[in-house]
Design a protein that fits this description.
It is globular, with a radius of gyration of 10 Å. It is mainly beta. It has no helices and 5 strands. This is Serine acetyltransferase.
């Protein structure tokens, strides 16, 4: 899930069930079940698997 204003730089893979927070700047691949926030985007914790 991408929130408003998030920016994806280059070609990256976003893992299943991941969230990228509003305004986050993502520059590398995201593991499944991750929550990413900030500039640059950093993982804050893992989500429960659906």
């Amino acid at each position: 899930m991408l929130h408003t204003g998030s920016i994806i730089i280059n070609r990256i893979k976003i893992g299943f069930n991941s969230i990228i927070g509003a305004g986050a700047v993502v520059m590398r691949d995201i593991e499944p079940n991750s929550k990413i926030v900030g500039v640059p985007g950093k993982e804050i914790n893992k989500r429960r698997r659906l």
